[in-house]
């Protein structure tokens, strides 16, 4: 009976090193903040070009691109977060990600201001998302990591890019860009 009681502990101990292995995250800039998403969801990174606007789309859906013959919608996370979109600059690019929606997987482009690097972040370095004070919805976050003296916001890209939600709670871009009244 003693061996049966220790067997689950031995299994948990054997699995613990895998859980402590660092995971890789692609870090990128949105405005002045550093964000990251799991590298496992990133298909590729391409330079900003040939974005075709589509009429009657919500503000966060900036348009579509042709990616080797496939039409890929492009989402602006700044608009999704209720913020003003960043101007397109020299380092602006599309991060092409694959997201899970029910049983389906979808390829979506995400506009970012600049791609930084791929970082190994150990699970022990990730704190849970703050319960208050965050300027993002809590369900958009998987956690916060401190890397090189800066906080990196870890996004749950499946939540941020939920197709059934994109555009459903958004204000027009003009409203998002207006300064707050003090």
TrEMBL record:
Annotated ranges, domain CheW-like: 22-166
Q: Which spans are transmembrane here?
A: none
Pfam families reported for this sequence: CheW
Instruction: Read off the InterPro entries from this record.
Output: CheW (IPR039315), CheW-like_dom_sf (IPR036061), CheW-lke_dom (IPR002545)
Q: What is this protein called?
A: Chemotaxis protein CheW
* Species the sequence originates in: Rubrivivax gelatinosus
**Organism classification:** Bacteria, Pseudomonadati, Pseudomonadota, Betaproteobacteria, Burkholderiales
């Amino acid at each position: 009976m003693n061996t049966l009681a220790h067997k689950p502990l031995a299994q948990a101990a054997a699995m613990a090193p895998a859980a402590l292995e660092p995971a890789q995250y692609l870090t990128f800039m949105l405005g002045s903040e550093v964000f990251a998403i799991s590298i496992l969801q990133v298909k590729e990174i391409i330079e900003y070009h040939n974005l075709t606007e589509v009429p009657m789309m919500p503000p966060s859906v900036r348009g579509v691109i042709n990616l080797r013959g496939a039409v890929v919608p492009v989402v602006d996370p700044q608009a999704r977060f209720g913020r003003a979109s960043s101007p397109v600059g020299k380092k602006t690019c599309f991060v092409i990600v694959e997201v899970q929606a029910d049983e389906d997987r979808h390829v979506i482009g995400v506009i970012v201001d600049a791609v930084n690097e791929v970082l190994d972040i150990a699970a022990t370095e990730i704190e849970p998302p703050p319960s208050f004070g965050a300027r993002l919805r809590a369900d958009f976050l998987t956690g916060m990591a401190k890397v090189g003296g800066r906080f990196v916001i870890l996004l749950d890209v499946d939540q941020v890019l939920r197709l059934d939600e994109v555009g459903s709670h958004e204000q027009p871009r003009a409203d998002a860009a207006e300064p707050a009244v003090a």
